Model the fold of this input.
Amino acid sequence: MTTYKLIATAAMGLEAVVAKEVQNLGYKTTVENGKIMYEGDEEAIVRSNLWLRTADRVKIVMGEFKVYSFDQLFEQTKALPWDQLLPVDAAFPVSGKSIKSQLYSVPDCQAIVKKAIVEKLKSSYKRMSFLDESGPSYKIEIAIRNDVATLTIDTSGAGLHKRGYRVGQGEAPLKETMAAALVQLTNWRPDRPFHDPFCGSGTIAIEAALIGQNIAPGFNRDFISEEWPIIPKDLWDKVRLEAESQANYDQPLEIYATDIDHSMVEIAKENAIEAGLGDLIQFKQMQVKDFTASRDYGVIVGNPPYGERIGEEEAVETMYREMGEAFEKYPTWSKYIITSHPSFENLYGKPATKKRKLFNGFIRTDYYQYWGTRPPRKES
Ligand SMILES: C[S@@+](CC[C@H](N)C(=O)[O-])C[C@H]1O[C@@H](n2cnc3c(N)ncnc32)[C@H](O)[C@@H]1O
Done:
């Protein structure tokens, strides 16, 4: 086993949530903008990919160094131990970005990194001819920021939000990673009712069900590093089997997913069935103003329309008012609403207990939290 420097990448605003998940897997973290850094071996790579619900990707840091010229970039890249990870037939596309740095031509940086790795592999594997790149894939990135180059290899492949269950979607689906974060930022516990009144394609409710039964979010998909010789196949099998035994399929859940749009409810149902959670979520066509609950101390998480589209604003504002009135009847429930609407609290009729700045893709939003009353303490 080798120890690698790893990065779990996070959407802006979700760093603390991702860091907590990485810590829960047993690793010490340091956090920078959009990056959670930690150290771990091959098993850490497998476990991170399979278990992280809110990270975008998991990457290996191959090297980090100051760079001011193409010669330096070439030599320092070539000096890194690429041959310890990449086999002679590795396919390795190089992508790049450069921010506030002397080396600003990204295509040139990519070409130089590529050439340096080719040279390194040719000399390590004693190849005179070209490398045919017919083997497993290694997506390499050269990122230069303030003249510091970071070379990484992606271990995830498709972003971790691609869980594999979304067979259908509506107009503005949430990323699965963001939906999981919205659930994790609440006080929901699996023994309490949960309701998404704007379910769209069902992402929030499905992520809640996965969390509620402790099902690994990556159980239904593959990862690019499964092809790599450095990670034994049986390690993937072992971690998958462990995940299977850690899932708590007997945990009863009371999760509701409703939407005004009949066709969205059907799509959400299909996605839940694809995730293997069809029986766990109760779907219904319903307007938010008709919200009712038969139990206390539940949690609502909602991603309503933000009213940004032309012609939509007035209807959305009326709906926010009606939502506030409907939810007000349930003081024991906690309500969490994500929106970019600047007057949300006014329209809803109440200032939030707390709000948190989040980015839904490129849209700056607030996550408005209205905490419900606490259940009475049990007499002992
Ligand atoms: C931004 S989308 C939700 C996307 C969802 N989170 C997903 O991942 O697919 C907003 C949803 O709210 C629904 N909606 C709009 N007005 C509503 C209302 N008054 N009551 C309930 N649902 C409503 C829309 O049909 C739409 O599906």
